[in-house]
User: Which sequence fits this backbone?
């Protein structure tokens, strides 16, 4: 952190180098170096998100090899749809700086998604810097700490917030570079992305009512019955009623079983208009 002249000199030097590279392929690397002069981070992921499409990993550093299958492969295959920072048409988070706790649903830390994709990766803390270089396009930078490292302090979070505008400006220049180098063809939707998105939308449509599906997806994302009720503008008691009914219809008895069923069904998705549960049930 900037608490003496030496730290300020380190930041100024790193920022100068970053500004020289903000419009080329090395921008993420030098951005991480600059951030580390202020706040030490161990793992970084830079992700491209476009509305209605699966995210694309642009850059990462510090992710252990034994965690990549879970933290990257499974996440980008479809689990990202349950993440609090997932870009959606109806509930996107504006550009800025966000600790995970600030954007997560009220029961997120008790959810199976959190246990699977956060706790199992040994992350002790995660914060995000989000830039929006153009409408419908977002560059999300996840900064994490592992194992026995301390969580980000209040002062460190304040420092990260203070550089949010610099990060956003650099990401805008970096996005211009990406578009110039790759054109638009690379970012066109591909069938598997459309398939994953459709599987998410259609999960349970063959057996559940629309309201039951809405409740199921909110529970999977880490909302409590009270939070889901506020989202759907119904009472918590009504949410509980829908929850019992969908559990009965899916022959499950807990939220953990709902999560497992969702992940299994998602991996067996086939058609764009089909319920992924149908393919999964037929397979087993």
Assistant:
């Amino acid at each position: 952190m900037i608490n003496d002249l030496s730290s300020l000199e380190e930041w100024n030097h790193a920022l100068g180098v970053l500004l020289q590279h903000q419009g080329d392929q090395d921008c993420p690397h030098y951005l991480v170096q600059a951030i580390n002069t202020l706040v030490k981070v161990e793992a970084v992921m830079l992700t491209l998100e476009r509305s209605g499409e699966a995210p694309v990993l642009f850059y990462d550093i510090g992710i252990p090899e034994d965690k990549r299958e879970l933290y990257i492969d499974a996440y980008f295959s479809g689990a990202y749809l349950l993440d609090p920072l997932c870009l959606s048409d109806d509930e996107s988070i504006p550009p800025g700086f966000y600790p995970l706790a600030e954007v997560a649903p009220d029961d997120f830390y008790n959810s199976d998604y959190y246990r699977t994709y956060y706790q199992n990766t040994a992350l002790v803390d995660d914060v995000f810097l989000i830039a929006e270089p153009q409408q419908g396009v977002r560059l999300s930078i996840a900064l994490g700490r592992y194992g026995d490292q301390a969580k980000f302090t209040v002062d460190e979070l304040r420092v990260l917030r203070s550089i949010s505008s610099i990060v956003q400006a650099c990401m805008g220049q970096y996005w211009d570079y990406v578009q110039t180098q790759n054109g638009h063809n690379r970012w066109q939707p591909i069938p598997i992305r459309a398939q994953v998105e459709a599987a998410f939308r259609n999960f349970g449509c063959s057996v559940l009512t629309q309201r039951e599906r809405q409740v199921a997806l909110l529970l999977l994302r880490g909302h409590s019955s009270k939070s889901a009720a506020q989202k759907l503008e119904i009472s918590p008691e009504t949410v509980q009623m829908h929850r019992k009914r969908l559990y009965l219809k899916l022959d499950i008895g807990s939220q953990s079983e709902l999560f497992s069923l969702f992940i299994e069904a998602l991996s067996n998705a086939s058609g764009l208009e089909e319920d992924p549960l149908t393919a999964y049930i037929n397979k087993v």
About this structure: The domain at 5-187 is CATH 3.30.450.80 (Beta-Lactamase).
